[in-house]
Design goal:
Blueprint: H1 2-45, H2 51-58, H3 64-72, E1 75-78, E2 83-86, E3 95-100, E4 104-107, H4 124-127, E5 138-139, H5 146-152, E6 164-171, E7 174-180, E8 190-191, H6 195-209, H7 236-240, H8 256-259, H9 286-300, H10 303-318, E9 324-325, E10 339-341, H11 343-354, E11 358-359, E12 362-363, H12 369-373, E13 385-387, E14 392-394, E15 405-409, E16 413-418, E17 423-429, H13 441-452
Parallel strand pairs: 5-7
Antiparallel strand pairs: 1-2, 2-3, 3-4, 6-7, 6-17, 8-10, 9-10, 11-12, 13-14, 14-15, 15-16, 16-17
Domain Beta-lactamase-related: 166-426
Keywords: Hydrolase, Signal
GO molecular function: hydrolase activity
Length: 454
């Protein structure tokens, strides 16, 4: 009798397992379609890239689980409607990403369509006052850096298999080296990946300067305010330092449901459970940055001001006119990764930090904020670069001058700030995702410093 029951159960679970596998395959394909829609939309409308460039850069050497589907999917670009759709399964609505001025592309949820989703836009009164054109950075090239810059592009000297798309070196406020790959120029934005976290940290600094949020107070995440919720103790500073104590059933650096699945920040990030006492464990997590800005939105309590603040009070004041700060479809910034900007705009951000948070005589960041973000505090990762507050900090083992800190992102995005030499080193790239073939920014920065001298 027992054998008959076991056989019956086995027969029952075979189709269930097959059904579950089919559901998993369908979901991965939907995510791959979302990846293609999102990156094609941003690269087309933010950056003006051609379909061939998008295929060879944005959609090449990406996460392994999406590669096969990406080879078979085809994006449909509506230039008049400024959106991209990707069919992935018969009978299912296509995955869609739609572009907005300054806010770039927002991805609709799986099953969503443009006719049923009201996407957030910057108010017309705000966009009407956006700066026009670009204020050039001073340029005085130093030929001694030419061999190093050439080596950065050879895919060997600073990392086998690396693919550099841009190098920019700024010293004492002047561009001393600059080069871009074919099809890219000084005005071509690329996705920053996690360099966006440092931009998010800067936005939080601007908000703190204006008394819109207290970084050392408990994060104003509304879902955590019920009596007895242990997450009430998590501060915004702990979110900025990746020491929230939160966990998730996925790797901290993978929030694919938000990035390519169209899941809203509000539907995912606030629900992560607390595993460790806040401030006791370092865990690099996209959700921590997303939650810090999500809390800022609720602290401000005005969506118009929340959406406008980063532009009116930071990027436009710095002249970062080629920068797009993307949101989800419900209006939360996805500033853990989804920012598109140029090397020159990143230089402007770096110059703000070299100037102690002051720009054109106006203090944008609180006094002491540069030290705050560039000082490791609390639990730290076991690597040569330590972590401050949304910025990485060079440890002794890097061989870089004391006080060096950096914004770093996937696929080889770097903004290295070296206050001791009044120096910025910026590298953009399309390195492989998930493979140990990246660009060695530490060695490159050391070589730049050695070549320039004191």
């Amino acid at each position: 009798m027992g054998r008959l029951i076991a056989a019956a159960l086995a027969a029952l679970f075979v189709p269930l397992a097959a059904s579950a596998q089919q559901a998993d395959d369908d979901y991965v394909r939907a995510m791959a379609a979302g990846y293609e829609a999102a990156f094609t939309c941003s690269a087309t409308f933010n950056a003006g890239r051609s379909p061939a460039d998008i295929q060879s850069n944005e959609l090449d050497r990406v996460y392994s689980e999406y590669r096969e589907d990406l080879r078979n999917l085809r994006a449909q670009v509506s230039r008049s409607g400024k959106y991209v759709s990707v069919d992935y399964q018969e009978g299912a609505p296509p995955r869609v990403a739609a572009w907005r001025e300054h806010l770039g592309c927002a991805q609709l949820p799986i099953g969503g369509s443009l006719g049923t989703s009201a996407l957030p836009y910057l108010p017309p009164g705000v966009t009407a006052n956006a700066p026009v054109g670009r204020t050039p950075l001073r340029r005085q090239l130093d030929d001694s850096l030419t061999p190093l810059v050439q080596a950065a592009f050879d895919s060997r000297s600073y990392g086998a298999g690396s693919r550099t798309s841009g190098i920019l070196v700024v010293r004492r406020g002047r561009i001393v080296a600059e080069r871009y790959a074919r099809g890219i120029n000084a005005a071509t934005p690329q996705r920053t990946w996690s360099v966006a976290k440092s931009i998010a940290g800067t936005v939080l600094g601007v908000a703190a300067r204006q008394d819109l949020i207290d970084l050392r107070a408990p994060a104003p995440v509304p879902e955590w305010q019920e009596r007895g919720d242990p997450r009430q103790r998590i501060t915004t500073e702990q979110l900025m330092r990746m020491s929230s104590g939160l966990t998730s059933p996925f790797a901290g650096n993978r929030t694919d449901a938000i990035y390519v699945g169209g899941t809203a920040v509000a539907d995912s990030a606030p629900g992560q459970p607390l595993l460790h006492r806040p401030g006791s464990v370092f865990r690099y997590a996209n959700n921590d940055t997303l939650l810090a800005l999500y809390g800022l939105r609720h602290a401000i309590g005005n969506d118009r001001r929340y959406l406008s603040l980063p532009f009116q009070e930071l990027t436009w004041k710095l002249g970062m006119t080629d920068t797009f700060l993307e949101t989800d479809w419900r209006g939360d910034f996805v500033m853990s990764s989804q920012v598109w900007t140029t090397a020159r705009d990143l230089a402007r951000l770096g110059l703000l930090y070299l100037n102690d948070g002051v720009w054109n005589g106006e203090r944008l960041l609180p006094r002491g904020f540069v030290k705050f973000v560039s000082t490791p505090s609390g639990p730290q990762p076991d690597r040569e670069w330590k972590y401050g507050a949304t910025f990485w900090v060079a440890g002794e083992d890097t061989g870089l001058p004391e006080g060096t800190f950096a914004a770093m992102g996937n696929r080889g995005q770097y903004l290295v700030i070296v206050p001791e030499h009044d120096l910025l080193v910026i590298r953009r790239g399309y390195d492989p995702i998930g493979e140990d073939k990246g660009f060695d920014i530490t060695e490159f920065t050391r070589d730049v410093i050695a070549e320039l001298g004191s």
